[in-house]
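We modelled the chain as a single entity of 220 amino acids. Its sequence is:
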Amino acid sequence: MHALNRPKTIAAAAIIALGGSSSSIAHPHVFAEARLDVVVEGGKVQGLRHLWRFDDLFSSTVLVEFDANQDLTLDREELEEVASVVNASIAEFNHFQIVTSNGKDVDMIKPDTMIADFKDSQLIIMFESRPASAIPLDNTVTFGVYDPTFYTAIDFTEDEYLSVENMPDNCTKQVIRPDAEEAIAENQQSLTDAFFDEPGGNDLSKIFATKLQIECGANG
């Protein structure tokens, strides 16, 4: 992969490539349809597979900024650069992942690489991540994707886009879609305080995230 040596691209990437800003917390500027596959082996969650398909406007902006040879397409090296910039831009936000086991946050290992593609005029980002330790499915585990700065809206348009591979027989899954108005009403004071205390982003945005919840009985 060649070095990032185009100042215009770097400057634009810092703004548009999912980085967000203090003024972006009010509403999202970038939209993506997503798929999440939870990979289970031996009764434990071993990894997550993410796929995000971005909206036409953001995708066209990325095309313009990263099309170094101006041939109106993104070749392999240009796509690698896109993936590298996006990966770096969202690393500090845990790659927009929220994973909890029995109500406690699970440490996730940052993916080394991402894959970028461009199909039907839309940017597609794919990556895999894994927990620091495999997660036993012995109670309640939840998975969500959200941007704590509110800059990017990640949307699972169909419940089946949140799936579990090799889910044990003693487990059930449920897709939880919070009602935004109810979430705001129930957390109004916390959201107001968070906006002034941490305008660049905070964990409270996860109350708006669509989540996949796996409930399991005791194994063994």
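As a brief sanity check on the tokenised model: The mean pLDDT is 81. The two ends are 48 Å apart (CA to CA).
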